[in-house]
Each structure stands twice: as structure tokens, then as C-alpha cells.
């Protein structure tokens, strides 16, 4: 039987900020449909890793292959096309303050859909994405009128509007109360089930990790320290791993 | 490294960075597919929303300049030259420079704060991830809108300040509307209007590019946003004066004065 081809491959990635070496020879691969969680302390380079994957930050060295394409070799137009298949949920939600929820959701369509397609299908696409996150009634509201959890859901709806094959979540439950955090974790699972998308979830919220992960990579000292299921990692006796579970 | 060396290196780095940013503006602006909708939106915000402030300031400027110039001209028995003197001063120098300074304050700080807050809240990154070129969408549109609207606002400021001058002349005198305009426009020629208009185009460019540069490269959270807005105003105002100095030298060399 032929091995499953990874949808994302990161090989020997290095990234430094001055004398601070955030990622050191980091490697990993993600298989299609997998929910991979990257776990690590604050400032350990988790967000830097996914920003390198989407080319928001150029790595110092190493190779990143996404959907069979070497991210470092792509020109701007090719990168933009690749980005249509990769959604990114920002830690701060990054909703455009000056736009309504509808305009926020329509914004990614500007680049990837023709004017005619937008005229015909934008409304239904926006409504479908909002229904997926249970917030259809907010369509004409401004981001400032929404609560923290609602903003997170709208940001997720904006990510979903292009029906991406990969979704990168940057600390999706940070700053939310435990009930809302749980709702967001459930939403991540629902989205994965509906869209069959592969997900990389950056988090240090153990409840979210337990609920959403198929596999967990622990990013310690800039390296892929250990990779296993949440259940198996709970049994590991290494003190650096135990710190997260105790 | 002593303090002066440090200041020198920071200043030179800033000049280098802003030059690169300006170079990128020209590269992006020359590529096809401009964001016309956002450009029109920015023209509205930059032009229409600054109109009242520029109008009021221009009116007061024309009025005050006329009132304050009158005693000196009376002393030399040249009060009849008041409309001519006021119109030349306003058209050549005062209206364009004051309009540019108002725009540096309002537009420069507005753009600096807006783009700065977009930077620190990852909205610019989100734009990039969604496949939209944020530089083209945010920077090119704002700089071009500023380049278009500052000259238009300056023209309007000239017209309103000349009207202010007319009222100023009539506080102590009795000059008809027809005579005032005849004298005011009689003193002017193309050599007064064209350099004035051309320099406001450069003022608009400087205000837009500095505001965008400071906001786009904002760092260190909300503190950085405040700093971006403030430094955008200071640097843009300084550049307006430097450009004005250069413009005056060039018009002098070309014999347009």
C-alpha cells in the first residue's frame, strides 16, 4: 500500500530574530484531513511557524511544501492562488474594523472570484459561512458591536468562505471564557467534519487540544520535541512534556 | 557608539527605509489593476472630510492677512494695493502651505493611526492572506488620493481666502466686489498659479507617503500606533516646509517670481 502523501511538509526550518533562535531545524508533516495541534510555551515560535507556512514571514532556511508546492519558490500570484486553499484564523481575529460583517466576509472573494461570480454567488456564500458559525443575524453589524466569541466565529466564517483545504488556527481559544472556548473547539470539529479540511491548531489550551487534536507536536527549544496523540503524551514521563499536563 | 552616531545611524536608516517604501509605491502604482473603489473612497475621506476645516481656516487666513496688512500700506499711502498684495501672498504661498499643514495634521495623523492599528491588530496580514496586496489596497490608494485632493483643497482655500480678503478690505474701506476681484486677479499671472499648484501636488504626495510609511511599519502595540500618528504629522509638516523652500528656489531660478 502506497503511503499517504503529506498535505504540508516542513523540512529543517530555521527562523531567528536577532540572537533569539525561535525555530531550530524544525521538521514536521501533516496528512490530509488531520487535525494537528502544535503545543508549546508562549514565545516558543508556534505562531512564527504557521506564519512561515503561509509565507507571512520568510524563514531563514528550510523548505515548506504546501499542497505539493514549495512556498519559497512561488511568485506573488502563485502564492495568492495557494492562499485561496489555506485559511488562517488570527489570534486577534483581524476583522476589518471599518467594514461590516458582510464586507469582511466578501473581502477574500474580491481576489479569487470574478465580478460576475461575486454578483451571483457572494450573498449565498456569505450566508452559508455565517450559518456554519451560527451568526447569520450579524450580517450587517460592525465588528465593534460583537462580543469576543462572536468575533472569533466571524473570523472563522471569513476563513471558511473560500472553502479552504487547510485551515491554520492561531490560538483560537485564547482570551475567551471557558464556555465560549469550548464552543469554539466544538466549532473547529464541526468545520473539519463539514469541509474535510486539514487543520493546524496552535494552542496551549489543554481542553481545546484534548477535544480537537488527532495528533500533537510539542514545540520545545525550537524543535519538534515529540509527536504523538494527546492520550499517549499524557503518559510520557519526560519532565519537559509533563510540565504541560501536570 | 556615542549619542550623535546613534542619532545619525537611526536617521539614515529611516531615510533609507522611507526611500525603499517610496520606491515600492512607484512599482506598485505602475502595475495594472488598481483599487479604484478604495481610491474613490479615500478621496471622499481625505477631500470631503477635510473641506470644512480647510474652508474655515482659509477664510480666517484671508481676513486676518488683509486686516494686518492694511496699517502698513496706509502708512505708505498704498492702501489701493491691498487686494493685489493679499492675492499674491495667498496664491503663491500662504494658502498652499497652510492647506498642506492642515492636511499633514488631519490626513497624515489619520492615515498613520488607521494603518498603524491595522498593523498591530494583524488586519494587514489578514489582507495578505486573503490574496489582496495590502500595499496596493492601503498605501497606493491613500497616497494617490492625497496627491489629488491636496491640490484641489488648496485651490478651494485660495478662493475662500480671497473672499475673506474681500471682507477684510471692506471692514475699514469701501471697495466694490467687482473692483476687488479686478485688482486681485490683475496682480496674478500663470507664474503665480502653476508653481503653487505643482507644489501642492508634491505636498500631497509627501503627506500621503509619510502617513502610510509610519502606519504601515507601526510596531509595539497601541503605543506604537500613537507614535506613528504623531511622527507622521511632525515629519510630513517638516517635509512640507522643505519642499516649499525647494519650490521657491526653483521658481526663482526659472524667473517665475
From TrEMBL, chain A:
The record's listing under Gene3D superfamilies reads: P-loop containing nucleotide triphosphate hydrolases
**Which residues does the UniProt record annotate as the domain ABC transporter?**
8-246
**Which intervals of the chain form a coiled coil?**
none
PROSITE patterns per the record? ABC_TRANSPORTER_1, ABC_TRANSPORTER_2
Recorded GO MF terms? ATP binding; ATP hydrolysis activity
**SUPFAM superfamilies tied to this protein:** P-loop containing nucleoside triphosphate hydrolases
**Keywords from the UniProt entry:** ATP-binding, Nucleotide-binding, Transport
Q: Which domain of life is it from?
A: Bacteria
Among the Pfam families in the record, one is ABC_tran
Q: What is this protein called?
A: ATP-binding cassette domain-containing protein
Top-level taxonomy? Bacteria, Pseudomonadati, Bacteroidota, Cytophagia, Cytophagales
UniProtKB/TrEMBL annotation, chain B:
Query: Does the keyword Cytoplasm belong to this entry?
Result: no
Tell me the protein's name: ABC transporter permease
Q: Does Transport appear among the keywords?
A: yes
Q: Where in the cell is it found?
A: Membrane
* Alphabetized InterPro entries for the sequence: ABC_MlaE_roteobac, Permease_MalE
What GO terms are given for molecular function? phospholipid transporter activity
Q: Which UniProt keywords apply?
A: Membrane, Transmembrane, Transmembrane helix, Transport
